[in-house]
Amino acid sequence: MTTSDPSYDFAVGTSFDPNAGPGAHAAATGPAASGCPVGGGAGAVRLAGASYQQTPTELYRSLRREHGPVAPVLLDGDVPAWLVLGYSELSYVTTHDELFARDSRRWNQWDSIPPDWPLMPFVGYQPSVLFTEGDEHRRRAGVITEALEGVDQFELARDCRRIADRLIAGFSGSGRTELMHSYVHALPMRAVVQMCGMPVSGEDTQRLVDDLRISLDAGEGDDPVAAYGRVGDRLRQLVTDKRAAPGPDVTSRMVTHEAGLTDEEIVQDLISVIAAAQQPTANWICNALRLLLTDERFAVNVSGGRLSVGEALNEVLWLDTPTQNFIGRWAVRDTQLGGRHIRAGDCLVLGLAAANTDPEIWPESYVGAENSAHLSFSSGEHRCPYPAPLLADVMARTAVETLLEHLPDLMLAVEPDELSWRPSIWMRGLSELPVQFSPVAQ
């Protein structure tokens, strides 16, 4: 039985109407109804503030000392949740869907969540692959996988190289630039929209990317819910266009797939694909460049050193993973995890960055980049679908290598400790990356 059936048993003592809004099910049994404490009781830490902006690893270390591998935390508006910090605990959560599932309608806190809650784009139920389970998830994820498998990695690398060349030409003569705006975010954005069959540039495309950024990582004064709505409207038009005239792109392959997804299913899954490809890949590029430009281990080989680029990219996935935390999973029934009593309907935030630096897997505080057993792409059935990580690697590697080949004497324009991280508990990336180099005549 799939989650589309209204009689689906959510193990919280109630039947479920999939067409009802999230607040309609607040009467479900569990901690919210019984008055028992949920994650976020005594000693709960707010997931916000300067600690997350500059030194999240110190915060994770402190949480481990005080709470162990699963810590009580407070989300925006002091909404309680659990942060899974341990590598083995996070692996357990992501590989046991029968205990920790993705459908957010299970949440026992919906009666206290306002409709304009900043995290609504993350947790508000949508007919998206992100919230599906069982056979339905495998059907939807299968369509995405096959659509992405149609992307030729050599062609993608060629396209990324062309995009990189054009972007670099726009600032290489000046001797200085701010890379986050002029290069890091622009390259994966153009590559992803091209993969999906949209124009590589233009005002319409730029608005889409800006709205995706706001919906994923809103700044002060932004409206993430409204931005998410605009993203959906733009992609609905794209799906309509591709039904009328399919082409050699990801959207067309999803539209024409034999699984017969509805337009709204495709729109929601496209949002997942584009968001997962653009923002995290941009921050992966950013964090690798910062490592290459600030760590003396890479200084000797940085100019055209392809091996060191690969090492930097992999090390970043361990130490500065682009997606720090992901919300999340919802407990199907009362259970135990990391010494904590998790109640049915509790929300678990996946602490990907914390798990990657868990001292239980890296004795003596040593974290190496020699293997790829990190959890940056999550694990289990809901991990990033193959071949998404390979395509992201093509974009990131091409972006870094091309920049260093064009500007071999690239260096920071500020001291390393002057770099500031974006104030986000979800994404890990710099606000700005100012650099200088010898001007290149065009």
UniProtKB/TrEMBL annotation:
GO terms for molecular function: heme binding; iron ion binding; monooxygenase activity; oxidoreductase activity, acting on paired donors, with incorporation or reduction of molecular oxygen. CDD domains: CYP_unk (cd20623). Coiled coil: none annotated. Belongs to the cytochrome P450 family. PANTHER family: CYTOCHROME P450 YJIB-RELATED, P450, PUTATIVE (EUROFUNG)-RELATED. This is Cytochrome P450.
